Amino acid sequence: MGETPKPNRTRTLRVGNLARVEGEGALYVRVKGRQVEEVRLEIFEPPRFFEAFLRGRSFTEVPDITARICGICPVAYQMSSCQALEAALGVQVEGPLKALRRLLYCGEWIESHTLHIYFLHLPDFLGYPDAVRLAQDQPQRVQEALALKKTGSELMTLLGGREIHPINVKVGGFYRVPRKAELLALRDRLERAREIAQRTVRFVGSLDFPDFAPDYTFVSLRQEGEYPILGGRLVSNRGLDIAVAEFEQYFHEEHVAHSNALHATLKGQPYLVGPLARYNLNHDQLPASVQAVAREAGLGSVCRNPFQSIVVRAVETLYACEEALHLIDAYEEPDPPSVPVTPRAGAGAGCSEAPRGILYHRYRMDEQGLIAEAKIVPPTSQNQKMIEEDLRQFVAANLELSRPELTLRCEQTIRNYDPCISCATHFLRLDIEHEP
Amino acid sequence: MSLRVFALGNPYRQDDGVGPWVARRLRKAGLEVFEATDDLTRLVEGLAGADEAWVVEAVVSGRPAGTLHVMEVGPEPLPAVFERLSSHSFSLAEALELARTLGSLPPRTVIYGIEGRQFGLGEALSPEVRQAAEEVVQAILSRTGHPGNTLVTSACQHEE
Q1: Chain-chain contact of B38 with A71 (C-beta, under 8 angstroms)
Q2: What is the pLDDT of residue B151?
Q3: Residue among A111, A132, A423 whose CB faces B98 most closely
Q4: How far apart are CA A406 and CA A430, in angstroms?
Q5: Taking residues A164-172, what's their average pLDDT?
């Protein structure tokens, strides 16, 4: 407890039972003297099994099945899979249908970011054990968060067909598209959501952040004229600029002994995807109004502190509200609700910006449209190496912290990423073992 | 009186899919069911305004597969074991406590926890889990006045 580590003394931090059915993980850190000798974020279950599960299924089933990989970001899985399959089928989805997809995705960003900000991440900063205690002290704030989140959920319900696991998305477009009046009916709530999102940015901008700013390699999509959600080219702050179809020439996945999730690297090096990467590579694509609110909250055009990702998420939530309003106002009802698709043999890749970062899908199918091969690279496996690197650097720089403080900071360091393993506020159990 | 049924779980995760399995059966009988998987703050939203809520969820407590745990939520937080029942990022116990804190926990909330055995990838329920799920379906249908497949009368007798 707050003891100064002695030279040659080994401290082992074991963080076990990141357990849940859809993803299990654990953390192990070994420190000898002042050296962090080993850091392992162990993820027991990746969506790798879904890749096998999809083989032999019709391409038409893929969006609904992949949506079940994650109950928090089903739209991301649907969009990346649709785009990959459409590339294989030689189909382009443009105009109002593409705009509707972006609107649906805005709903998911609002929902997912709000969940993470208020219910998973904020308790760390305010010293609450969980969101329930936060709600006891600040019910108004939590009610507002639920209202904000619900607006995203209403967008998803309208466009996706039901409140969870949208069933209205298909390769080529939608089964049914909304009437303009149905979208306009959401306008007032989106206006209110935008106000709550603005207050959220200001509030989380006022939190205290540890002084920590690694020199990351950021990777995100980028497309001139819009903040990246549905597509674009893959870019980095170190000169990468490639088409999505080239992903596997640059990004490689490797097995590591301690994790079932493959570790992805960019030319052998760890990299970071997610809100921080998107923000840093696309700050100029944000509307001036959103940039101004970000600036007031203390964010410049570059932010390298992963603890401030909570502010960036809030900024992106505000952007998603604004973008949704813009898309609703510009909406013209398309006819028909999808473009025709005919099965054929082929392969294609797709990538979109899930709330947690780029989500890459590639499929190969036979002439009947049955899936022969599926590859899914989720944000969490891309960030896994970076999370370990953050923990290594953070623990090394903060060896003097008391055990409870180090525990909290390790938890926060992982939650900065909102990884798609158990991200509950109680998921870390930390034991520090002293060995003579 | 407003009674709502909530089914939690993932239909592609074997016994974790017991909630969605029950939901499908209840929908066929004409009942509205609210489904959720990872994000149980949706449950908090859904509970608001209900007089009575029934929640169906897979459970892992070490008891034999198919064991039915039925618990009515009382004035105290759920016992610690219920923290482990949920597979989700925001647990069922936390979601119910959040609803209570915000004043939206229905006056009566009943949890049907069905002990699961396997949680790998796949759509099939274990036979014991399926049998328990069938019992839950019948219990909910009889409570809500939906008799399920019981033939009450022939449709043609209503024709004039």
Answers
A1: yes
A2: 46
A3: A132
A4: 9
A5: 83
Going by C-beta distance under 8 Å and a sequence separation of 6 or more, which residues neighbour residue A26? A14, A15, A16, A17, A18, A41, A42, A44
Which residues of chain A neighbour B10 with C-beta distances below 8 Å? 21-22, 68, 71
B-chain residues near A62 (CB < 8 A): none
pLDDT score recorded for residue A405: 81
CA angle B132, B20, B10 (to 5 degrees): 110
Whether chain B has a CB inside 8 Å of the CB on A49: the answer is yes
Nearest to B37 among A49, A50, A164 (CB): A164
Q: What is the pLDDT of residues B64-112, one digit of tens each?
A: 999 998 889 998 887 665 554 444 467 788 889 999 999 999 999 999 9
CB atoms A119 and B102 under 8 Å: no
Does B158 score more than 80 pLDDT? no
Q: What is the pLDDT of residue A347?
A: 98
Minimum distance, in Å, between the CA of residue A20 and any CA atom of chain B: 4
Q: Quick check: helix, strand or coil at residue B107?
A: coil
Residue A107 has pLDDT above 80, yes or no: yes
**ipTM metric:** 0.81
Q: Are A314 and A117 in contact (CB under 8 A)?
A: yes
Residue A380 has pLDDT above 90, yes or no: no
Residue of A nearest to B59 (CA): A21
Separation of alpha carbons B47 and B35, rounded Å: 12
Rounded CA gap, A16 and A428, in Å? Answer: 7
d(CA A253, CA A266): 9
Work out the mean pLDDT of chain A and round it to a whole number. 87
Q: Which helix (H) or strand (E) holds A351?
A: strand A346-354
Look at A153 and B87 and tell me if their CB atoms are within 8 Å. no
pTM, two decimals, is: 0.89
Residue A131 forms contact with B (CB below 8 Å): yes
Cβ–Cβ < 8 Å for A176, A337:
yes
Cβ atoms within 10 Å of A399's Cβ, excluding its own: 15
Q: Note the Cα A90 to chain centre separation in Å.
A: 28
